[in-house]
């Protein structure tokens, strides 16, 4: 029947949520991909998770209310006890969830591939981390994190476009064009669709043939000029130490 709540299968008994620096994602356990993705927003404690649960309730197929189900929530590798206590207060007192588990994001990545031990490299929006996972736990002594990640690459794409004379991009150097969502969305799209890491050191790679790409406003750029250079910064550093 239209609008009816379906009986929930055993593989979808819990909600899985990930609150990232750029986007928040949620879905049912057993799904191959999130069912709900929203931009990261500022607000009262628990607000992003509440929004995810509300939107997940409206996303097909409609199982029982997500707010009445257990929630598996990822957390950054370096979260401390005080942060976890504050999160638990939000989960149980503000959102009144029946049950919740908080697991390190790198541990979840390893488990997703069926491994209890692994080395997990995570390039987020603001942070790049390399974590050693042993027996399902993060080895804190071997955890390494750098504040150089996706948004820095977005800014590098914008810098490369300005080098080719593309107009109306805003921002300077490595600084994002803040307050210009459409510009940053353009940079993210180019980063995710045309940029890739070279199979050999870039200094030893052959020059790439020009590949002209037309931007939404009609301006034309040679993406081959920066498609390998931008992600290379993750491997060799950004030149700032």
UniProtKB/TrEMBL annotation:
Q: Catalytic activity, per the record?
A: ATP + H2O = ADP + phosphate + H(+)
Protein origin, superkingdom? Eukaryota
Under the heading InterPro entries, the entry gives:
Actin, ATPase_NBD
Q: Which Gene3D superfamilies match?
A: 3.30.420.40
Q: Quote the protein name from its UniProt record.
A: Actin-related protein 8
């Amino acid at each position: 029947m239209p609008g009816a709540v379906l009986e929930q299968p055993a593989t979808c008994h819990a909600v899985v949520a990930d609150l990232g620096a750029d986007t928040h994602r949620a879905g049912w356990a057993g799904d191959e991909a999130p069912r709900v993705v929203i931009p990261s927003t500022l607000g009262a404690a628990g607000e992003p998770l509440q929004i995810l649960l509300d939107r997940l309730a409206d996303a097909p197929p409609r199982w029982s209310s997500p707010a009445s189900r257990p929630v598996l929530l990822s957390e950054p590798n370096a979260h401390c006890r005080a942060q976890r206590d504050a999160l638990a207060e939000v989960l149980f007192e503000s959102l009144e969830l029946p049950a919740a588990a908080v697991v390190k994001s790198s541990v979840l990545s390893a488990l997703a591939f069926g491994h209890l031990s692994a080395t997990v490299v995570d390039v987020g929006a603001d942070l790049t981390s390399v974590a050693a996972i042993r027996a399902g736990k993060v080895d804190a002594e071997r955890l390494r994190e750098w504040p150089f990640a996706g948004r820095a690459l977005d800014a590098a794409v914008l810098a490369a476009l300005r080098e080719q004379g593309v107009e109306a991009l805003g921002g300077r150097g490595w600084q994002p064009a803040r307050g210009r969502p459409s510009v940053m969305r353009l940079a993210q799209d180019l980063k995710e669709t045309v940029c890739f890491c070279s199979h050999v050191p870039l200094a030893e790679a052959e020059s790439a043939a020009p590949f002209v790409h037309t931007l939404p406003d009609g301006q034309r750029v040679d993406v081959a000029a920066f498609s390998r250079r931008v992600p290379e910064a993750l491997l060799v550093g950004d030149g700032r130490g």
